[in-house]
Design a protein that fits this description.
Length: 208
């Protein structure tokens, strides 16, 4: 990928450049689905974490779980969930905003003092559109969009996944390459200068 294309993935709608990767092992927990779907999601997490060269853990020493994934049918269920408003600032206002645009997914991040991802909260509303999507595709899509802090517009026009008719979705090679480059230990865990995209692009295509 050319540097400009890489930069667009982390340039937000307000024009600012913001990159972040996880700064600690990922300890996931999933709510609202059957055990089989939990296994599917955790399998996707393991695969993407391995791609990145990052680590997983059973628990996070501060938070217990630092990647929480919630599946539900209506946004109002979130405001009825005990203590969730302690994890998500302005939960009621966020829910109203998501209802207003008929959203079926939302991700919220926390960051540590160095700007690296400390925790992520993923919300998936199983509306009619989501219900038609295979569980494996939902899982892979959500994990890919949580392994890095992408721009809020990074995947509005094109999914990070690709699938042939009748075949399971797979991660696009160029997005996989960006994830691998983003976790290069030589690079910082967070960046706000677009020159960072040049360093990412320079590492894409190098042998793992």
């Amino acid at each position: 990928m050319e540097p400009d294309a890489v930069a667009r993935l982390f340039t937000r709608s307000d024009g600012t450049y913001l990159f972040a990767r996880w700064g600690r092992p990922i300890a996931p927990v999933v709510f609202g689905v059957e055990d089989q779907t939990v296994s599917t999601l955790k399998g996707a997490i393991e695969a993407v974490v391995a791609l990145a060269g990052h680590q997983m853990a059973e628990t996070d020493p501060e938070l217990g779980a630092n990647l929480m994934v919630f599946f539900f049918r209506e946004w109002d269920e979130l405001t009825e969930t005990p203590n969730l408003d302690r994890l998500i600032p302005d939960l009621a206002e966020t829910v109203e905003r998501l209802k207003a645009v008929d959203a079926n997914q939302y991700r919220s991040f926390r960051f540590d003092a160095a700007g690296a991802i400390q925790a992520a909260f993923v919300f998936v509303r199983m509306d009619a559109e989501m219900a038609r999507v295979p569980a494996e595709t939902i899982a892979l899509s959500q994990v890919v969009q949580t392994i890095l802090l992408w721009s809020d517009t990074a995947f509005t026009d094109a999914s990070p996944l690709a699938a042939a008719p009748g075949q399971p979705a797979v991660l696009k090679p160029e997005i996989a390459a960006v994830i691998r480059a983003g976790y290069d230990p030589i690079l910082p865990a967070s960046a706000t200068n677009a020159s960072h995209a040049l360093r990412l692009a320079a590492r894409i295509g190098r042998p793992s």
